[in-house]
Amino acid sequence: MRPALFIVLALLALERLNAEDYAARFKELQGEKAEGAKIDALLDEWRAKNPNDPNAWITSANYYFNESVGPNISTKTPDKGDLTVKDRKTGKTAGSISFKPNVAKTSRSATDLLQEATTKFPDRLDIWCGLAFIYQESGDFDNELATLKKMVAYTKAHPAGLKWLNGDPIEDPEDHYVPEKLHAYGQYYEQKENRQDDKRWFQIASLSTQEYPNHAEGFNDSGGYYADLQDWKKAREMFEKARQLDSKSAGPLMNLGSVCLEAKDYPGARKYFEEAIKLDPNGPFAGEAKQALAKLKKK
Question: Where are the domains of the chain?
Fold first, then answer.
């Protein structure tokens, strides 16, 4: 049995060495600014000869994603990071230039590669999240949300043994780790501060509240969505739920205080701001809560 075991271990070591060689050769070709056909051939061979190496798919997808980024000229108002286009005659803003994926044509599809990788390595949440990120950057929300839903379905069915970058095990429980990831994707849309993206934010928050009803973040995000709509009653319900689920966080208390202020429930606002200070007197919200209480004294 020992010779056979030795051969198996030797083959595994050779496979790892080959993977390292492919990664090194890929970097060399990039440094040499080799033609795309050479890089295509190397990446295709890497995936074919190392079918159990997630990095073969991750490296390939990252390469084609970066290659697909190109300038996108639009009449839209520039977002953060965009270049401004001005009218030569008037000097006024006429549009913007942004750099987005899927503008330049590539020989392989980054999303196709990562979709394949999610079926081969479904326990790698970094691959699921990478695929969702590419859809997000491409402006394809429907596929982003579909990917997040598939990730949630898999992790709920297989909560143990999940991995992140480099295959490192995820130590946090699945029902804590995944809703935190959903929150991060939702925040991308919340920060855009427009009605359409607010709805996308709410869809991701709703996925979290439906699948993780014992985690506060989705309810806190949903409360923020209703607050933006000035639906103070619904916002308060959501923030109260978040507070019940996470009694050690001052965030929901601050949100409740703000909602009460907007609804002109000054006693309620005072109560929540005082609770926030009591809970975390030296925390990041303490100063804001004290300022709000000082203003309430004048009412």
Answer: 1-68, 70-103
